[in-house]
Amino acid sequence: MSEDKKSSVLDRELGRARVKRGFNPSEMGMAPLSLEVLVTGEALPVDFYVPIFREKTKKIEMTLAAEEGEIYKPAWRERLKKTNQTKFFVKVDEGEAINDYFDRNASKILDKDNSPLSRKRSVVKEMANLNLRVLFGSDLSPRALDNSVKRSQDAVERMARDPMILTKLVDVLSVDYSVYSHSVNVSMLGMAFGKYLGFDQSRIMSLGLGGMLHDVGMSKLPGGLGDKLGELTPREKSVMRQHPRLGYKMLLPIGAVSYDVLMIVQHHHENADGSGYPAALPAAKVPLLARIMRLIDEYDQMTSDRPGKPALTPSQAAGILLGDDIALYGPDLAPEFVRFLGSPAFTQ
Ligand SMILES: [Fe+2]
Fold it and tell me: Whole-model pTM?
Protein backbone atom coordinates (compact mmCIF):
# COMPACT_ATOMS: atom_id res chain seq x y z
CA MET A 1 0.00 0.00 0.00
CA SER A 2 1.39 3.41 -0.93
CA GLU A 3 2.04 6.19 1.57
CA ASP A 4 -0.75 8.23 0.04
CA LYS A 5 -3.22 5.37 0.31
CA LYS A 6 -2.29 5.00 3.96
CA SER A 7 -3.06 8.61 4.63
CA SER A 8 -6.46 8.19 2.93
CA VAL A 9 -7.17 5.30 5.31
CA LEU A 10 -6.11 7.48 8.21
CA ASP A 11 -8.45 10.20 7.03
CA ARG A 12 -11.25 7.67 6.96
CA GLU A 13 -10.43 6.55 10.51
CA LEU A 14 -10.49 10.14 11.60
CA GLY A 15 -13.87 10.45 9.85
CA ARG A 16 -15.20 7.51 11.87
CA ALA A 17 -13.87 8.96 15.12
CA ARG A 18 -15.63 12.19 14.24
CA VAL A 19 -18.93 10.42 13.73
CA LYS A 20 -18.59 8.19 16.80
CA ARG A 21 -17.22 10.62 19.29
CA GLY A 22 -18.40 13.97 18.07
CA PHE A 23 -14.82 14.85 17.08
CA ASN A 24 -14.79 17.56 14.44
CA PRO A 25 -11.49 19.44 14.12
CA SER A 26 -13.07 22.04 11.79
CA GLU A 27 -15.60 22.99 14.44
CA MET A 28 -12.68 23.51 16.81
CA GLY A 29 -11.10 25.83 14.22
CA MET A 30 -8.29 23.32 13.60
CA ALA A 31 -6.86 21.95 10.35
CA PRO A 32 -4.79 18.77 9.86
CA LEU A 33 -1.29 18.75 8.42
CA SER A 34 0.96 15.77 7.85
CA LEU A 35 4.40 15.53 9.43
CA GLU A 36 5.90 15.30 5.96
CA VAL A 37 5.38 19.00 5.34
CA LEU A 38 7.85 20.03 8.05
CA VAL A 39 11.48 20.77 7.28
CA THR A 40 14.16 19.53 9.66
CA GLY A 41 16.17 22.25 11.38
CA GLU A 42 13.51 24.95 10.86
CA ALA A 43 11.55 26.61 13.66
CA LEU A 44 7.86 25.66 13.88
CA PRO A 45 5.75 28.63 12.70
CA VAL A 46 2.86 28.04 15.13
CA ASP A 47 1.81 25.71 17.98
CA PHE A 48 1.13 22.13 16.91
CA TYR A 49 -1.52 19.89 18.48
CA VAL A 50 -2.31 16.17 18.38
CA PRO A 51 -5.71 14.60 19.10
CA ILE A 52 -5.59 12.35 22.17
CA PHE A 53 -8.47 10.16 23.30
CA ARG A 54 -9.07 10.69 27.04
CA GLU A 55 -10.43 7.60 28.79
CA LYS A 56 -11.73 9.69 31.64
CA THR A 57 -13.95 11.97 29.57
CA LYS A 58 -14.36 9.54 26.63
CA LYS A 59 -13.56 12.45 24.35
CA ILE A 60 -10.82 13.35 21.90
CA GLU A 61 -9.00 16.45 23.05
CA MET A 62 -6.45 18.56 21.23
CA THR A 63 -3.21 18.47 23.17
CA LEU A 64 -0.25 20.78 22.60
CA ALA A 65 2.55 18.69 21.04
CA ALA A 66 5.11 21.35 20.16
CA GLU A 67 5.32 25.08 20.56
CA GLU A 68 5.88 27.82 18.01
CA GLY A 69 9.60 28.49 17.62
CA GLU A 70 10.68 24.95 18.56
CA ILE A 71 13.25 23.58 16.13
CA TYR A 72 11.90 20.57 14.28
CA LYS A 73 14.27 17.63 14.76
CA PRO A 74 14.18 14.15 13.21
CA ALA A 75 13.90 12.63 16.73
CA TRP A 76 10.65 14.52 17.25
CA ARG A 77 9.27 13.06 14.06
CA GLU A 78 10.27 9.53 15.11
CA ARG A 79 8.66 10.00 18.52
CA LEU A 80 5.35 11.01 16.97
CA LYS A 81 5.50 8.20 14.41
CA LYS A 82 5.97 5.65 17.20
CA THR A 83 2.68 6.77 18.68
CA ASN A 84 1.06 6.45 15.23
CA GLN A 85 0.70 10.23 14.94
CA THR A 86 1.31 11.00 11.29
CA LYS A 87 -0.88 14.10 11.36
CA PHE A 88 -0.99 17.05 13.64
CA PHE A 89 -3.33 19.97 13.89
CA VAL A 90 -2.91 23.71 13.73
CA LYS A 91 -5.29 26.57 14.36
CA VAL A 92 -6.85 27.74 11.10
CA ASP A 93 -6.65 31.38 12.19
CA GLU A 94 -2.86 30.95 12.20
CA GLY A 95 -2.99 29.69 8.61
CA GLU A 96 -1.25 32.77 7.25
CA ALA A 97 1.87 32.04 9.38
CA ILE A 98 1.94 28.49 8.03
CA ASN A 99 1.48 29.74 4.48
CA ASP A 100 4.53 31.97 5.01
CA TYR A 101 6.41 28.91 6.29
CA PHE A 102 5.46 27.03 3.10
CA ASP A 103 6.58 29.98 0.99
CA ARG A 104 9.99 29.95 2.67
CA ASN A 105 10.52 26.19 2.91
CA ALA A 106 8.47 24.22 0.38
CA SER A 107 11.17 24.37 -2.28
CA LYS A 108 13.55 22.56 0.12
CA ILE A 109 11.33 19.51 -0.34
CA LEU A 110 9.82 20.06 -3.78
CA ASP A 111 12.99 20.98 -5.66
CA LYS A 112 15.01 18.09 -4.29
CA ASP A 113 15.23 15.13 -6.63
CA ASN A 114 15.64 12.70 -3.75
CA SER A 115 12.48 13.75 -1.88
CA PRO A 116 10.02 10.82 -2.02
CA LEU A 117 7.09 11.40 -4.37
CA SER A 118 4.59 10.84 -1.55
CA ARG A 119 6.22 13.65 0.42
CA LYS A 120 6.18 16.04 -2.53
CA ARG A 121 2.51 15.28 -3.07
CA SER A 122 1.72 15.82 0.62
CA VAL A 123 3.42 19.20 0.57
CA VAL A 124 1.66 20.40 -2.58
CA LYS A 125 -1.75 19.12 -1.46
CA GLU A 126 -1.47 20.49 2.04
CA MET A 127 -0.08 23.85 0.91
CA ALA A 128 -3.09 24.15 -1.37
CA ASN A 129 -5.56 22.89 1.24
CA LEU A 130 -4.41 25.24 3.97
CA ASN A 131 -4.33 28.18 1.59
CA LEU A 132 -7.95 27.46 0.64
CA ARG A 133 -8.92 27.47 4.31
CA VAL A 134 -7.50 31.00 4.50
CA LEU A 135 -9.11 31.98 1.18
CA PHE A 136 -12.54 30.78 2.34
CA GLY A 137 -12.17 32.72 5.60
CA SER A 138 -14.43 35.67 6.17
CA ASP A 139 -13.56 39.30 5.45
CA LEU A 140 -10.34 38.87 3.52
CA SER A 141 -8.79 42.16 2.50
CA PRO A 142 -8.36 42.62 -1.28
CA ARG A 143 -4.63 42.15 -0.77
CA ALA A 144 -5.07 38.91 1.22
CA LEU A 145 -7.47 37.62 -1.46
CA ASP A 146 -4.93 38.46 -4.14
CA ASN A 147 -2.17 36.67 -2.20
CA SER A 148 -4.30 33.63 -1.63
CA VAL A 149 -5.25 33.31 -5.30
CA LYS A 150 -1.58 33.65 -6.17
CA ARG A 151 -0.74 30.84 -3.76
CA SER A 152 -3.39 28.63 -5.39
CA GLN A 153 -1.76 29.39 -8.70
CA ASP A 154 1.67 28.51 -7.28
CA ALA A 155 0.32 25.13 -6.15
CA VAL A 156 -1.09 24.48 -9.64
CA GLU A 157 2.24 25.48 -11.22
CA ARG A 158 4.04 23.08 -8.87
CA MET A 159 1.77 20.26 -9.99
CA ALA A 160 2.26 21.14 -13.64
CA ARG A 161 6.03 21.33 -13.24
CA ASP A 162 6.45 17.87 -11.73
CA PRO A 163 4.42 15.46 -13.90
CA MET A 164 4.83 12.64 -11.36
CA ILE A 165 2.68 14.53 -8.84
CA LEU A 166 -0.41 13.91 -10.96
CA THR A 167 0.20 10.18 -11.53
CA LYS A 168 -1.76 7.34 -9.91
CA LEU A 169 -4.41 9.75 -8.72
CA VAL A 170 -6.71 6.87 -7.86
CA ASP A 171 -4.62 6.42 -4.69
CA VAL A 172 -3.88 10.06 -4.01
CA LEU A 173 -7.22 11.82 -3.92
CA SER A 174 -8.50 12.56 -0.41
CA VAL A 175 -11.54 10.57 0.59
CA ASP A 176 -12.45 12.73 3.58
CA TYR A 177 -14.90 15.38 2.47
CA SER A 178 -14.43 19.07 3.01
CA VAL A 179 -14.75 21.86 0.49
CA TYR A 180 -10.95 22.30 0.77
CA SER A 181 -9.86 18.72 0.10
CA HIS A 182 -12.59 18.49 -2.56
CA SER A 183 -11.23 21.59 -4.32
CA VAL A 184 -7.68 20.20 -4.29
CA ASN A 185 -8.99 16.86 -5.62
CA VAL A 186 -10.88 18.41 -8.53
CA SER A 187 -7.92 20.62 -9.33
CA MET A 188 -5.62 17.57 -9.61
CA LEU A 189 -8.23 15.54 -11.49
CA GLY A 190 -8.94 18.40 -13.87
CA MET A 191 -5.27 18.81 -14.71
CA ALA A 192 -4.75 15.07 -15.22
CA PHE A 193 -7.90 14.79 -17.39
CA GLY A 194 -6.90 17.86 -19.41
CA LYS A 195 -3.53 16.29 -20.03
CA TYR A 196 -5.19 13.02 -21.03
CA LEU A 197 -7.31 14.95 -23.55
CA GLY A 198 -4.16 16.52 -25.02
CA PHE A 199 -4.97 20.09 -23.92
CA ASP A 200 -2.28 22.75 -24.09
CA GLN A 201 -0.56 23.91 -20.90
CA SER A 202 -2.68 27.04 -20.57
CA ARG A 203 -5.96 25.11 -20.51
CA ILE A 204 -4.50 22.50 -18.14
CA MET A 205 -3.50 25.33 -15.78
CA SER A 206 -6.99 26.86 -16.06
CA LEU A 207 -8.54 23.54 -15.04
CA GLY A 208 -6.11 23.40 -12.09
CA LEU A 209 -6.83 26.93 -10.85
CA GLY A 210 -10.53 26.64 -11.71
CA GLY A 211 -10.69 23.49 -9.58
CA MET A 212 -9.07 25.23 -6.62
CA LEU A 213 -11.40 28.23 -6.88
CA HIS A 214 -14.66 26.84 -8.30
CA ASP A 215 -16.55 26.92 -4.99
CA VAL A 216 -14.97 30.03 -3.48
CA GLY A 217 -18.35 31.81 -3.68
CA MET A 218 -19.50 29.46 -0.88
CA SER A 219 -17.52 31.65 1.50
CA LYS A 220 -19.91 34.51 0.74
CA LEU A 221 -23.10 32.57 1.51
CA PRO A 222 -24.98 33.77 4.58
CA GLY A 223 -25.24 31.89 7.87
CA GLY A 224 -22.29 29.53 7.34
CA LEU A 225 -24.33 27.68 4.69
CA GLY A 226 -21.16 26.88 2.77
CA ASP A 227 -19.98 24.71 5.68
CA LYS A 228 -23.19 22.70 5.99
CA LEU A 229 -22.58 19.10 4.98
CA GLY A 230 -26.00 17.54 5.61
CA GLU A 231 -29.22 17.73 3.59
CA LEU A 232 -30.32 21.28 2.68
CA THR A 233 -33.85 22.69 2.95
CA PRO A 234 -35.43 23.99 -0.32
CA ARG A 235 -34.77 27.57 0.86
CA GLU A 236 -31.11 26.77 1.62
CA LYS A 237 -30.78 25.08 -1.78
CA SER A 238 -31.87 28.23 -3.57
CA VAL A 239 -29.40 30.33 -1.56
CA MET A 240 -26.67 27.77 -2.28
CA ARG A 241 -27.30 28.22 -6.02
CA GLN A 242 -25.88 31.73 -5.76
CA HIS A 243 -22.34 30.50 -5.10
CA PRO A 244 -21.13 30.35 -8.74
CA ARG A 245 -22.07 34.01 -9.35
CA LEU A 246 -20.71 35.11 -5.97
CA GLY A 247 -17.41 33.38 -6.76
CA TYR A 248 -17.30 35.00 -10.21
CA LYS A 249 -17.86 38.46 -8.70
CA MET A 250 -15.24 37.87 -6.03
CA LEU A 251 -12.57 36.83 -8.56
CA LEU A 252 -13.41 39.28 -11.36
CA PRO A 253 -11.08 42.06 -10.12
CA ILE A 254 -8.11 39.71 -9.67
CA GLY A 255 -5.60 39.92 -12.47
CA ALA A 256 -4.24 36.39 -11.99
CA VAL A 257 -7.66 34.89 -12.74
CA SER A 258 -8.10 34.36 -16.49
CA TYR A 259 -11.36 34.46 -18.44
CA ASP A 260 -11.31 30.64 -18.71
CA VAL A 261 -11.08 30.33 -14.92
CA LEU A 262 -13.90 32.83 -14.42
CA MET A 263 -16.09 30.78 -16.78
CA ILE A 264 -15.31 27.60 -14.81
CA VAL A 265 -16.30 29.32 -11.57
CA GLN A 266 -19.50 30.80 -12.98
CA HIS A 267 -20.73 27.79 -14.96
CA HIS A 268 -19.58 24.69 -13.07
CA HIS A 269 -23.20 23.78 -12.20
CA GLU A 270 -24.70 24.06 -15.70
CA ASN A 271 -26.09 20.74 -16.96
CA ALA A 272 -25.65 19.62 -20.55
CA ASP A 273 -29.45 19.32 -20.92
CA GLY A 274 -29.98 22.92 -19.77
CA SER A 275 -31.33 21.98 -16.33
CA GLY A 276 -28.46 23.43 -14.30
CA TYR A 277 -27.70 26.85 -12.83
CA PRO A 278 -27.06 29.80 -12.66
CA ALA A 279 -27.98 30.39 -16.33
CA ALA A 280 -29.59 27.02 -17.33
CA LEU A 281 -27.43 26.96 -20.46
CA PRO A 282 -27.37 23.90 -22.74
CA ALA A 283 -24.04 22.13 -23.38
CA ALA A 284 -23.38 23.98 -26.65
CA LYS A 285 -23.33 27.33 -24.81
CA VAL A 286 -21.17 26.31 -21.84
CA PRO A 287 -17.38 26.58 -22.18
CA LEU A 288 -15.83 23.11 -22.37
CA LEU A 289 -13.64 23.65 -19.27
CA ALA A 290 -16.73 24.50 -17.19
CA ARG A 291 -18.47 21.34 -18.48
CA ILE A 292 -15.43 19.32 -17.47
CA MET A 293 -15.54 20.89 -14.00
CA ARG A 294 -19.25 19.98 -13.68
CA LEU A 295 -18.40 16.34 -14.36
CA ILE A 296 -15.32 16.15 -12.15
CA ASP A 297 -17.05 18.00 -9.32
CA GLU A 298 -19.81 15.36 -9.33
CA TYR A 299 -17.35 12.47 -9.59
CA ASP A 300 -15.32 13.69 -6.62
CA GLN A 301 -18.44 14.21 -4.50
CA MET A 302 -19.57 10.66 -5.26
CA THR A 303 -16.20 9.14 -4.39
CA SER A 304 -15.75 11.03 -1.07
CA ASP A 305 -17.20 10.18 2.32
CA ARG A 306 -19.97 12.58 3.22
CA PRO A 307 -22.46 12.47 6.07
CA GLY A 308 -24.90 9.65 5.37
CA LYS A 309 -23.25 8.97 1.99
CA PRO A 310 -20.23 6.69 2.10
CA ALA A 311 -17.75 7.01 -0.76
CA LEU A 312 -18.49 5.09 -3.96
CA THR A 313 -15.66 3.32 -5.77
CA PRO A 314 -14.46 4.86 -9.05
CA SER A 315 -16.23 2.15 -11.03
CA GLN A 316 -19.52 2.65 -9.17
CA ALA A 317 -19.28 6.40 -9.84
CA ALA A 318 -18.46 5.73 -13.51
CA GLY A 319 -21.62 3.60 -13.77
CA ILE A 320 -23.71 6.54 -12.54
CA LEU A 321 -22.02 9.03 -14.87
CA LEU A 322 -22.84 6.78 -17.83
CA GLY A 323 -26.32 5.84 -16.61
CA ASP A 324 -29.48 7.92 -16.45
CA ASP A 325 -27.46 10.99 -15.43
CA ILE A 326 -25.48 11.06 -18.68
CA ALA A 327 -27.82 13.80 -19.97
CA LEU A 328 -26.40 16.11 -17.27
CA TYR A 329 -22.81 15.73 -18.49
CA GLY A 330 -23.33 15.04 -22.18
CA PRO A 331 -22.79 11.84 -24.18
CA ASP A 332 -19.71 13.45 -25.77
CA LEU A 333 -17.92 14.05 -22.45
CA ALA A 334 -18.95 11.47 -19.82
CA PRO A 335 -17.67 8.38 -21.73
CA GLU A 336 -14.37 10.18 -22.38
CA PHE A 337 -13.97 10.82 -18.64
CA VAL A 338 -14.80 7.21 -17.80
CA ARG A 339 -12.17 6.06 -20.32
CA PHE A 340 -9.71 8.35 -18.51
CA LEU A 341 -10.62 6.70 -15.17
CA GLY A 342 -9.71 3.32 -16.60
CA SER A 343 -6.53 4.54 -18.29
CA PRO A 344 -2.94 4.45 -17.02
CA ALA A 345 -3.18 8.26 -16.76
CA PHE A 346 -5.39 7.74 -13.69
CA THR A 347 -4.35 4.36 -12.35
CA GLN A 348 -0.57 4.23 -12.79
FE1 LIG B 1 -20.12 24.33 -6.68
Answer: 0.88
